Amino acid sequence: MDKKEIDIYDFDKTIIPFDSGSMFILYCFIHYPWIIVYLPVLIAGLVLMVLKVISFTAFKKTCFMFVPMVPLDRAVKKFWDKYEKTVHKWYFDRKRYSVVISASPDFLLDEIAKRLDFDKLICTVHDRKSGAIIGENCRGEEKVKRLYNEFNKDEISVIDVYSDSLRHDKYIFSLAQGTCYHIVKSQKKPFNYSDVYGE
């Protein structure tokens, strides 16, 4: 049986030129100013993460605690109405089944996934009522685990992989049987996995 050929894309700073989660938080502070009451929680979490008292994932669990305070569906739609135009043009030239794997929240990416017609979206799952993460943050090695939860490992062939992060996305880059693309200043920079990681 022929394997399904897929390309893997990171989302933030890859398909778009910014971190969507951080930008959405800023957007909500501007458009729903009453959530300023949540700011001390965000700052406290950031300080604790910098001091290595809590992990990045634990910090991220505090980042979207404001969700119950905003009209979430409307906010997400308005956010992408504003920022959809920032999607890099080269993404629209894709030729294979596209799997977008991101650490950003599902409640934020589901909308843009529909607009851009992702074949498959894999991302961090959040409780839409509380904003809390459900399960693991979809980052690093977790991206590969989540990929193989969605697809039988023996039935897919990963061809090209695109990401802005050589550090965090080593694990998905290692799957590429075609070309690895490091996204630098919105441009695709092809590289050989062994040249960068020495493996």
Task: Offer a quick outline of the entry.
The protein is built from eight helices and six strands.
Question: Any overview of this molecule?
Answer:
The chain is an alpha/beta fold and 199 residues long. Helices cover 37% and strands 19% of the residues. The chain is built from eight helices and six strands. The chain has helices at residues 20-31, 39-50, 56-63, 72-83, 106-116, 141-150, 170-173, 193-197; strands spanning 4-9, 97-105, 120-124, 156-163, 180-184, 187-191. It has a six-stranded mixed beta sheet with strand order 3-2-1-4-5-6. A hairpin with a 2-residue loop joins strand 5 (180-184) and strand 6 (187-191). Helix 2 (39-50) packs antiparallel against helix 3 and helix 4 crosses helix 5. The longest helix has 12 residues, at 20-31. The radius of gyration is 17 Å and the shape is globular. The mean pLDDT is 94.
Topology (elements, then pairings):
Elements: E1 4-9, H1 20-31, H2 39-50, H3 56-63, H4 72-83, E2 97-105, H5 106-116, E3 120-124, H6 141-150, E4 156-163, H7 170-173, E5 180-184, E6 187-191, H8 193-197
Parallel strand pairs: 1-2, 1-4, 2-3, 4-5
Antiparallel strand pairs: 5-6
Which characteristics define this entry?
single chain, 6 strands, alpha/beta, 37% helix, six-stranded mixed β-sheet, 19% strand, 199 residues
User: Largest sheet, described in full?
Assistant: 6 strands, mixed
Radius of gyration: 17 Å
* Model regions low in confidence, pLDDT < 50 over at least 5 residues: none
* Spatial strand arrangement across the major sheet: 3-2-1-4-5-6
The 3D shape can be described as globular
Task: Label the structural class.
Answer: alpha/beta
What share of residues are in beta strands?
A: 15-25%
* Chain-averaged pLDDT: 94
Residue share in helix = 25-40%
Number of helices: 8
In N-to-C order, the SSE pattern is: EHHHHEHEHEHEEH
How far is the N terminus from the C terminus? 30 Å
> Got a strand count?
6
